[in-house]
Amino acid sequence: MRTFIAFFVGDIKNITRDSMLFGAMLAPVALALFVKYSISSFSEDLQAMYAFSIEQHFPFIMSFVILLPPFMLGVMAGLMILEEIDDHILSYIAVTPVSKSSYLLYRLLVPMVTSIILTIFVMIYTGLVNFTMSLLPVVLQAALLTPIIALFLASFANNKVEGLAIGKAVGIIVVIPALTYFVESNWLFLLGVFPTFWISEAFMKNNEIALLHNIYVWIGFCVQGIYLYVLFKKFNRKAT
Question: What is the mean pLDDT of the chain?
Answer without folding.
Answer: 80
